[in-house]
Structures
1.
Amino acid sequence: MSATAVDNLFFFFSSKASDSGSLQITKHDVLLATLSSNLSALEDKLLKDPHWKKLKLLRDEIANKAEWPQNSVDVTWSFTSQTLLLLLCLKETMIHLAADFSPGKPSLRTPEAAPALSPDTLSISQQKTVQSVLQFVVTFGVCPYLVPGVGVPLRCRTAFGAVVQDVVCLSAPPDATRRLYTSCRILLNIAHHTSLGSLIFCRHFGDIAAGLCQLGFCPTKRKPLKPEEEVLTEEERTFSREALRDILDQVYQPLAVRELLILQGGPPQSCTDEKTQVRCRAPAWLRRLCGQLLSERLMKPSGVQAVVRGILEGAGAGVAGGSDAEATAADWKKCDLIAKILASCPQQSLSPEDYYRDICPQILDLFHFQDKLTARQFQRVATTTFITMSRERPQLASKYLLEPVLAPLHRCLNTAEIPESGMAPGTILVTEEELSRCIEDVFKVYVVGNEPLTVLVDSLLPVLGVLFSLYCFTKQSVSHIRSLCQEILLWILGKLERKKAIASLKGFAGLDKSVSSLPSLCQFRAAAQGGIMITIKETVCDEDEDEALYQKVSSEQCRVEHLGDLLSHCQECGLAGDFFIFCLQELTHVAMENETELKTKRFSSKSVLELEQHQTLVEGQGQKLLVLQLLAVLCERMSEQIFTNITQVVDFVAATLQRACASLAHQAESTVESQTLSMSMGLVAVMLGGAVQLKSGDFAVLKQLLPLLEKVSNMYPDPVIQELAADLRITISTHGAFSTDAVSVAAQSTLNRKDPEGKIEEQQQTSHEKNSNGSDLEQQQSREKSRQMGLKSHTPPIAQEVSASRTTTNHKSGSITTDQLQEVILSAYDPQIPTRAAALRTLSCWIEQREAKALEMQEKLLKIFLENLEHEDTFVYLSAIQGVALLSDVYPEKILLGLLAQYDGGKDKHTPETRMKVGEVLMRVVRALGDMVSKYREPLIHTFLRGARDPDSAHRASSLSNLGELCQRLDFLLGSVVHEVTACLIAVAKTDHEVQVRRAAIHVIVLLFRGLSQKATEVLRDVLKDLYHLLKHVVRLEPDDVAKLHAQLALEELDEIMRNFLFPPQKLEKKIVVLP
């Protein structure tokens, strides 16, 4: 019966009008003729076809019960009435079939078979037929009767819609409003069936909703005189209103939102152009109604998500057919639109606070979608809404948005509010999921949103200490929130006022206790899913006090190092330079304080007040040590571009001068401070010498140095520095109009210190060369005289640097002389570390350039380099290592064997540190020789294999590292000793007790595979299996993670080699052979 009803519908809509022959008729006449023909064909089919007898009886029964006019002069309405009757017949038939259906029991033999379908299920072709019928019903029975501005007009849809709009006769009875009411009510009746309802609402919800809006809410133009003149009764209008709200609640909410937005329409548009039909603006009552209904959708549970989905899914991902930039711009515009909608409090809400209380949790939920495609747009909407609300209502946004987001971090700070039952050791304060979600949400709001609103910045300030502690903890291991914490900290430090940013950095370093940080009773712990959680710390026993003290000291040191890493990203904005200057100023305060206060009585004879004073002094000493540690880390981590403007450089010089004056006041002058003072004054000389284009405002900043320079010129014992300070003071006072030779020499010395090899501009070299030839000669004579008298040279560092750099400069223009060589050799024994290191670098440069006079003294130079290997300063012994390596590259036969003997000697001959430095030299020599290293294969391999059995673990690791560098370059020459090398590596990797040595052994295999590459299958064919078993053994049983990592890398290299060996890459080559 259901199939018969559907076939009837198909017949009804597939019949054609009779051929009109040669008559030229319009589209309107064709449509009317087709409708009349189909109506007649349907009646004939129902009367004559016995198969449709039951359907005819059912239709007549429903028609007799119907309360709407079914026949009309207007063919379109008659056609619509018959269609509605057939749809009602279909519905009744499907209900009866479903009621009589009783599914049988599933067969145990074929449990995988699908259950039997209900007989009221429509096939795909039947669904298409029903959808076509519904489209005709809506086109003929709903859309033509909508007043202008309500819904999308038929003329704006298709050309067929424009024809329908013209053929409908609105003046014929029944009235247009009655027709619309009948169509909407019957369609709602049919929609009570689930299958038919989904077909109706999925495509025609907007038109039905528009009809119900017009029926229930459209105001009448005049009040009728008599009740019988009313087209719709009040009960029918009430039914329309209730039906509208019912279907809005039933359908997919984003669909309801989208259709209501379409009904509400946009701004008014011009309708004067006849060629392009433009939709007229919706009437005022409809706009108000849609706004009210949209607000109700928004206020419902999950209403925010429905509104967001309705707008985003309705408008699409971007401009249709547009470029990526256009799509992105359109996407941001939609997000801004949604943010404005969500941030505006609707009239239905009692107050803005009630609205924010209901809506804000839903906005926060938008951050946490798992689907990547959906999450990206939803998070963008949430971020934009978050910022819009914070801008428009900061107090409510702080209460209902920011506080819930930052609640996990505030929970750590407000431990006093936690009951005692929740403070047991091991109690979890913040779970892994809460902390990860908190950090991710903060990143999305602050960093992605990138709006430095006052409420946002102020809300994050109290928890910055906890954020930095979390960042330090994530640096200890792998964590997915490490980069998020770093980006958040960098964002807030960049947006804060400079004073607040410096204060926050002081709190991070531990210099300011007023900055909130993670309480001592809380701790971060690694969680099961790879995240981090916050728990209550275990109580420390008396036996563990030493361990707790060690943990505290090491954690403070790590905090300082991590702060240095963080500041290394803040150099461009100038924050790192300002904080460095602050630390220098704190160092000046340390130098100015009197340390004799610590020399007090014994503890047994102290009063309580004295004990408190002593505790204060001890804390002060701790602060001083912390400042020194901070400066050490900053000097190590920061680059030379730490200062970004003149003001910072002047502040740096001022801090240095203040510290020098303070040291003079306490009579505590040191060599290091003398060098620092020379360098800082040299910076001022460089700026005044033209390296920086100074303006009048810059000289106003430089004048801050005048009082300090005057103090230095009056109090400093060194006459050269006194003279330089006085000359700088004159140059600054005259705005550079007057400058002495001392200022030029100091500037040249500072530039050469930055570039000891003389790579400065030729113009600067020649300009200073003329002014200082006489002073060079006097300086050299005074140094010779002091050496003859057996006295120590007290020449200031500036003059020494100028001398060394001038030697290099002279060499640039031609060959070096014997006197220049002798002077540099003497400088290599100078007690001043910069002078000695510069001399060693100069000698290395001459050797690299194959200067004949330097190469003639190879034995003496080798002795100088080897003696300086014993020096404890890094700059000196690294320069010596470079010199020995370059000299060995020139004369490997004479020098390499001696180095091997020194490296192979025991602890009684050379210190372990010296042997390690010689090992570094050998590694550089091996790299420099390249393919020529094969000539010295035997002594090198024997020395390194013997070193792998040395009692000193550091020497064993060094020997294995050098062995790896050597094997990497031997290729096929390794074949004769491959068994010895393999046996050594296997024994060390399996039996050595020191983890560093085992790591080195595995790393040799990595280097071996990388160096041999595709040759490994030939060179290592006899031992490849043994090496593979060794690597698998290390991966399974080695307790050290780093060694396991090296083994895994080696296995990956071996896997790549074997894949290329077994499956060589296909080369598309065409060979051309010339036949004889």
2.
Amino acid sequence: MSFLNGSSPHRNPAEDDIEAGPLSRHSSDVDDGDSSDPFDIARTKHASIDRLKRWRQAALVLNASRRFRYTLDLKKEEEKKQILRKIRAHAQAIRAAYLFKAAGGQRLEQGQGPVSGDTKPALTSTGEFPIGPEQLASISREHDTASLQQYGGVAGVSNLLKTDLEKGVNGDDADLLRRRNAFGSNNYPRKKGRSFMMFMWDACKDLTLVILMVAAAASLALGIKSEGIKEGWYDGGSIAFAVILVIVVTAISDYKQSLQFRDLNEEKRNIHLEVIRGGRRVEISIYDLVVGDVIPLNIGNQVPADGILITGHSLSIDESSMTGESKIVHKDSKDPFLMSGCKVADGSGTMLVTGVGINTEWGLLMASISEDTGEETPLQVRLNGVATFIGIVGLSVAVLVLIVLLARYFSGHTENANGTKQFVAGKTRVRDAVDGAIKIITVAVTIVVVAVPEGLPLAVTLTLAYSMRKMMADKALVRRLSACETMGSATTICSDKTGTLTMNKMTIVEVYAGGTKIDPPHQLESSPKLRSLLIEGVAQNTNGSVYVPEGGNDVEVSGSPTEKAILHWAIQVGMNFATARSESSIIHVFPFNSEKKRGGVAIQTADSDVHIHWKGAAEIVLACCTGYIDTNDQLMEMDEEKMTSFREAIENMAADSLRCVAIAYRSYEKEKVPNNEDLLAQWSLPDDELVLLAIVGIKDPCRPGVKESVQLCQKAGVKVKMVTGDNVKTAKAIAVECGILGSYADATERSVVEGKTFRALSDAEREEIADTILVMGRSSPNDKLLLVQALRRKGHVVAVTGDGTNDAPALHEADIGLAMGIQGTEVAKESSDIIILDDNFASVVKVVRWGRSVYANIQKFIQFQLTVNVAALVINVVAAVSSGEVPLNAVQLLWVNLIMDTLGALALATEPPTDHLMDRSPVGRREPLITNIMWRNLLIQAIYQVSVLLVLNFRGISILGLEHEQTEHATKEKNTLIFNAFVICQIFNEFNARKPDEFNIFKGVTKNYLFMGIIAFTVVLQVIIVEFLGKFTTTTRLNWKQWLISVAIGFIGWPLAVVGKLIPVPATPINNVFPKFRRTSKKKEPETSQ
């Protein structure tokens, strides 16, 4: 029974389940489930290939190409890995040959012959540019530093490409078009998607449909031979037509799904990045990149094209995507080549684009492999288990019906409507006997078609495709299918503060400078030295930029929200960004680090003095200060009293939910600065004996509606935890404002912790406290990872938001990784499962609703399909065993299968989410798919349908007053009424399935146009089938009274459903009611390691 519920019959009791109890487990236990059941994979995110192979081999499948279309293609995946290995080996061989050549050149230089490459390479003109794409590609692919130097280095190449290294390309349409024509666009040829005819061919591969087509052909041949072409083609032709209709409708549904997935995949690839064009930073699509563009690079960015480094500060690149080796490579003037597809691991810099699209190694690689976006989801795997169980039952029933009907037929117990025996040994012609046997086999095979719910696992793909498309409108881009449904099981959301709970629109509202509070915050005219040092530090120690258009109006500031706030403030203080940067030169940069919470820069002024500027978390930078500059521009010692006053100022600002940033500097002896590039790259900037210049308080207001979103999560049984790098007091104030903390009184030691305190605990202590933590301040990305691991070991299903490169491990470890679309780095996005396009917590809550909707829609479809399954099987089996005739023939059953399978899935699996979903607790990932409520609903409807239709089958002729008509016509009319009533019952029951646990089944129905359209289509086609296609379906026209009887039988299903919902059901799942069976299965299990 538990197998039917989509979970293992060899599982631990519910109290040991990951959602049902507080049992602590290791990650592997939580992920893998019980290995004895191939269909019990709770988490497919990192499932092994062997686990994926096991469930596929265990599944009962009639059409493998269709069933496994949207799962990971294991064969293609292996082929893809082999191609990647070949391309990487080829690239490494080219570089090895170049290094060998370079080494030979050095020997020649030492006096053993003429120097190789002594002459400047010949230029091949490409229209308006003196250098061609082949030469540029050759330099980049071979990492040919010698050729680069002969062209004049990066400056020489930029001249050949007509690019200004400071301002970038001109950027007008004519210039961009010239560059695309000369060097190509940043795209690569992709393999064409599958055509509609390929989907038709896949639908034809269904084993049962193939058997039916063979039977139809045989029936057609026998019919034409015995009755002539005019009358003899109906039996075989009608089956063939019904099969073709099933194939066409199936193919249309599958083709539409594939188009939706194709559009979503295109959206995933469309990365947006900043480039410098005409001296200003502009955001463009990766596809709009051209050769000659100048691109700023920061931690977490993807290198979008092949290029050469212009300037770099501690720039390190992760080239594992290209080389296959997880080695971080430092980039400088000695190794300035950057490969498309690699990630910035550390530091910052700017690059000149020299190759795009197919002219890059990444483009060649991507063009060589076919992207397989398929993946199985836990629900899909479980539904395959359900479908396999139902299929085995259905197959057994079909075999039983086949044996009974054949036995009755050949033993002479099957009679015609006029009472004559259909088969008499020695008298019946062989042709008639074969025709009779074919009809029996056709019925049995059609029962298999109805009984094996081939469309059940595919309904997951259908609802996910629909949900993913709709989620785009709700600002969520799904990267992994499984995440969409797993979000419905989320019990905890670990959210960032900045930009997710807050608006990410930062302004400086409070400033302490010169040892005192400045009001207004930009009033620093009385302290020229302090003002000058602040402007110098802000202008140079930043990843942002300021663009002043001609005329000087509407200054454009770019960078992170914090950088933009500080730059805006500095402009108000009197900073001219371009002038301030030109008055000093950068020696070395220590990029902002989320572990150290600060970033620094060493500069050389026009007077050749060396200044080191630091900026970062206020209390951390303040702790490094030994002095400060007062309002009279005098350097003062930082005594204990002054240190305390500054700390109080920080605490007061933090209590007002302000983010506090300190700006400090120190002078440094020029002689101590490394003068060698290699030593400079390793130089650790001094951060002691700093002089405090200012502490700024940055206001970042909470997002409108975030409090309501948090409360909605809490009502839905989802805990929201804030994990932030900000000061604990700032975090606490924002948490109260957002509703994560009810009040300041709720901020206890166990609910509000600091990152360093949490990481100092043991694993067991972290697990103990993880549930109670609501706010974690001053946390590092590793603290976030530790929290996720502790929560998952406690049995929680964890969703985590992240935007930085260092968030990648936590996003990867979490059940659902949510990356921020605006502030998120490419590294974070690639490690995530869903991208929140507007960085808004309200969108995270919408994803939870959609996740629950996926699960709820699948359950609606299961309830509807199983009702049809049970009713159709019981009616045909009872009739076959008792009378040797079945009331529902092959064509009728194929039509029922179409309503139940493809059309039913379209109608019910595409229901939009409702607020009612958030009134429930999270769905346990191993909770039975068929709940007690569903069992109650489907059994009531199935028993009612079976009872009424069997009464009609055995007593229908007398009930309908058909005794005086010819027996054959009366039987045909009775069977037509049974078929008509059965189909109409399913139409009425489709409404019941919409709301399994609500009384108002019509709520929101008029807004679901697809549902209404399918109901209308089914009704119209049913009328046409009964009234006009009788020869094909072996039906006869019904009068208006018989239509009313059919509708009345179907309508009774509505009040019956209302009465049924008043019947209470036990809270314990039905599969847990069999303790003996579960005890036996438990004995077979190995002990779970604790």
